[in-house]
Amino acid sequence: MPETLSKHPKTKGLGPIGRSKKAQGFFLQSVLAVDAQTAEILGLAYEEPFVRQPVPAGETHAQRLQRDRESLVWERAVQAIGPALSKSQWIHVGDRGADIFR
To answer: What is the pTM of this model?
Structure first.
């Protein structure tokens, strides 16, 4: 179970995490730079905290498709990191959330 901030009721701006409706917190999208040949971690290439927004009551499938998706964090990371230097190549590896950005 993820560590939650639910035990800190005065903390504002949290969103739902995990499967419990009571668990509150935020997510942190982190992108590591790794040397593909040596597997050496070179550092943190990008990081973005975000709060999951609860699904509005009564929202239809069509309405859900119109709003920005949480998975856009992957696209923002790729754009923020930018192109690789000459003679280099970026290989972006992601979890299941990475396959649903534009």
So the answer is: 0.71
